[in-house]
Design goal:
By secondary structure, this protein is mainly α. Helices cover about 70% and strands about 0% of the residues. Helix 3 packs parallel to helix 8, helix 4 packs across helix 9 (about 155-170) and helix 10 (about 180-210) runs antiparallel to helix 11. It is globular.
Length: about 300
Amino acid sequence: MAERQADRLSPAGHEQANAAGQGGPRAGGPERPGRGRVGGLRPYAVVARMHVRAQTAYRGSFAIELVASVGVTISGICELYVVFANVSALGGLTLRAALLVFALGHVSFSLADLFFGHLDTLPTYLRSGAFDAFLLRPLPVLPQLVSAELSLRRLGRTAAGSLVAAAVLARIGIRWTPAGVGLVALTVLCGAAIFAALFTTAAAVQFWLVDGAEVTASFVYGGQYAAQFPASIYPGPLRVLFTFVVPSAFVAYLPAMTLLGRTAPGVPQWIGWCTPLAAAGAWAIALLGWRAGLRHYTGTGS
């Protein structure tokens, strides 16, 4: 959570967020034919470019932050090595197979964290009244919040996790087929979508809790931690929780078992292909919760 504190909205962030409103279509103004979609995306692209320029203005500082973010990946790998220094298998998986689960879960979360991670600062917007500014702009609220902050230093985690995944996949002895390659790509993209939906759901709950970020973070970051380990190591109730409630098992473990040609306890082997269904279900709940939260919100004084 310390990383979250560093990403709290600064005065410069407010100015950058306001660019979305300035770049959006004016109320009542004529819309140029054939440019509705481009015009709708342009404000978010402008804000994203502003974040990139601001964060790379001091290249030395940016490089240090980028390298420091790699430490999260290194600490996770060291944790696995400590475990395997005492056991020969973890949940029926060898070190390389466990590293594959770790890497897939790590990359998926880091991608979602890059774009959606700052949604856990929504209570700050609600308490300060800054959230009302997003409601006044002729743009969807959720995309505005997503583009309001973009921490590029988190790319270090994505790059490090990708290197680990590539190294493990090259050495784990898989006979590659187009289906296998597609499963890996689908796993990363849909895993990131699952975590993005969890971030959105956690943010939606804040409309009722207002100051309950720690409560919802336990599910988001708990799910992230659970996704990096084989689900078979958890007792039955936790396995059900991290499979069907917080679908962390679909992020890496179940697809990895399918990729390796193995069957996870209690489920068919083909379930590893169901990550897109888990992502769709997670987003359906997230969007329903977000819409309900927006209807519930009546202003700072409520």
